[in-house]
Amino acid sequence: MSDQLDEFNNENGCPICNSPLVSPVKYTWWGGLIGPKLFHHTKCEACGYRFNSKTRKSNTTAIVIYSLVLFAIAFALMFYIKTA
Questions:
Q1: By the 8 A CB rule, do 55 and 64 touch?
Q2: Backbone phi, then psi, for 20, in 5-degree steps?
Q3: What angle do CA 54, 32, 5 make, to 5 degrees?
Q4: DSSP one-letter code for 26
Q5: Tens-of-pLDDT digits for all 84 residues of the chain?
Q6: CA atoms of 23 and 39, how far apart (whole Å)
Q7: Alpha-carbon span 62 to 53, nearest angstrom
């Protein structure tokens, strides 16, 4: 358990406010249960900033790409089902 906590508290915690109070995000509207795990999505409990715990940068670009890919897959499946 302490190994998992150390993963999220590395490099002084939050890249914005340097608070050590960060925790992994377990569920989001855009990625459900899988998305936050794929992108190491982490939230600072002090300022609310959400970021990638490995790169310490915003996940916004990854979230947009992830959402577009999922939308394209859903659209392709709907098109395939309709034409079949």
A1: no
A2: -80, -5
A3: 35
A4: -
A5: 444 545 544 567 999 999 999 999 999 999 999 999 999 999 999 999 999 999 999 999 999 999 999 999 999 999 999 887
A6: 14
A7: 13
The amino acid sitting at 64 is V
Helical H segments across 1-84, by residue range:
2-8, 35-38, 60-83
Strand pairing report for 50-52 and 22-24: unpaired
Residue type for position 37: K
Q: From CA 67, how far away is CA 40, in angstroms rounded?
A: 16
* Tokens matching residue 48: 């609310």
Tokens of 54: 């490995």
- How far apart, in whole angstroms, are the C-alpha atoms of residue 17 and residue 26? 22
pLDDT per residue as tens digits for the range 54-67: 999 999 999 999 99
